[in-house]
């Protein structure tokens, strides 16, 4: 008979209780809406934020579909209604927390969770609604790891896999996709969030009556937008801006514009992109795309960050009209 042990804080004392799997399962089933586990102690009913057993009863993991240096992500389903979800496991040592003050309340929260909520405009009033940011469904703070449960849009695929499958994306569809990416990045910055790891793997695309729809995922390398330049880079090194390789500091918006250009270059040139390599190459006009697209690329990928357009300027570029 498997028993799960939970540490429960009761005033200043810390007591330990055993909960049988059967009663735990019944409790979880009856609390799917409130998503708290009720444990009966000697003196009173205690409410405990989800533990690992509870997470499994809420969400059914199917298979691992992504693994990085800091986390593992499983495809899964929500047991109550079979909604597709992605379940991200992050070791506690790789988790950053931040103090949040919102509507008079102050609390500690996982940085990635705060960035995701704030980027989407769901953290506090006064933010811009940003529906293309992937939605957060739940978090589970366990002893050795944190689990973040997010939306998994049906029929969506990341842009990297999509490009490998179709080999070539028509320029009209590419333009529609990047207009959405830039709009989403602009709203993300207006909401005070710097994604810092925009790449094809972190852009999901699905099709609605022939029209592409994108979702931005993985804020694990992100930070808050700040006026001062950044010194340390967290993200995919191949897509870091050239100023970083020159030993300089970097700014949020100029870096985002560079990464947008890097993604577009991969699609248009059908070639691997690495900033240090790109800095050494001679760049010719790409013959398979329009001159407007070539001009857009050259502006995004300007080596001098001061020469790169802002995100608002990009939306006014003739290629996107």
TrEMBL record:
Keyword RNA-binding (UniProt): no
Enzymatic reactions: L-seryl-[protein] + ATP = O-phospho-L-seryl-[protein] + ADP + H(+); L-threonyl-[protein] + ATP = O-phospho-L-threonyl-[protein] + ADP + H(+)
Family: Belongs to the protein kinase superfamily. CAMK Ser/Thr protein kinase family. PIM subfamily.
Gene Ontology terms: biological process: negative regulation of apoptotic process; regulation of mitotic cell cycle
Protein name: non-specific serine/threonine protein kinase
Pfam families (UniProt xref): Pkinase (PF00069)
UniProt source species: Gouania willdenowi
InterPro entries: Kinase-like_dom_sf, PIM_Ser/Thr_kinase, Prot_kinase_dom, Ser/Thr_kinase_AS
Keywords, alphabetical: ATP-binding, Kinase, Nucleotide-binding, Serine/threonine-protein kinase, Transferase
Signal peptide: none
Known EC number: 2.7.11.1
Residue ranges annotated for the Protein kinase domain, each copy included: 59-320
One of the record's GO cellular component terms: cytoplasm
PANTHER family according to UniProt: AURORA KINASE-RELATED, SERINE/THREONINE-PROTEIN KINASE PIM
SUPFAM superfamilies: Protein kinase-like (PK-like)
Top-level division of the source organism's lineage: Eukaryota
MF (Gene Ontology): ATP binding; protein serine/threonine kinase activity
């Amino acid at each position: 008979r498997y028993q799960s042990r939970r540490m429960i804080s009761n005033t200043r004392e810390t007591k330990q209780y055993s909960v049988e799997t059967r009663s735990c399962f019944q409790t979880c089933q009856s609390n799917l809406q409130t998503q708290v586990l009720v444990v009966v102690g000697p003196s009173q009913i205690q409410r405990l934020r989800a533990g690992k057993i509870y997470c499994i009863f809420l969400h059914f993991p199917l298979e691992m579909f992504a693994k990085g240096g800091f986390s593992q992500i499983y495809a899964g389903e929500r047991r109550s209604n079979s909604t597709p979800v992605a379940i991200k496991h992050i070791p506690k040592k790789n988790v950053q927390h931040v103090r949040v003050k919102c509507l008079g309340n102050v609390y500690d929260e996982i940085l990635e969770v705060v960035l995701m909520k704030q980027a989407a405009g769901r953290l506090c009033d006064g933010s811009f609604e940003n529906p293309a940011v992937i939605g957060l469904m739940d978090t589970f703070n366990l002893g050795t790891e944190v689990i973040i449960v997010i939306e998994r849009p049906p029929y969506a695929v990341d842009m990297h896999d999509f490009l490998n499958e179709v080999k070539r994306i028509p320029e009209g569809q590419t333009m529609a996709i990047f207009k959405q990416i830039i709009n989403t990045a602009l709203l993300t910055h207006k909401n005070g969030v710097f994604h810092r790891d925009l790449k094809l793997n972190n852009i999901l695309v699905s099709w609605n009556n022939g029209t592409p729809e994108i979702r931005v995922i993985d804020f694990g390398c992100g930070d808050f937008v700040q006026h001062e330049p950044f010194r340390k880079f967290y993200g995919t090194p191949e897509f870091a801006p050239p100023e970083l390789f020159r030993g300089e500091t970097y700014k949020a918006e100029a870096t985002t514009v560079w990464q947008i250009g890097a993604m577009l270059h991969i699609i248009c040139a059908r070639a691997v992109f690495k900033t240090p390599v790109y800095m050494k190459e001679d760049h010719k006009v790409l013959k398979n795309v329009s001159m407007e697209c070539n001009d857009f690329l050259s502006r995004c990928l300007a080596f001098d960050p001061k020469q790169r357009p802002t995100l608002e300027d990009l939306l006014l570029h003739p290629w996107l009209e």
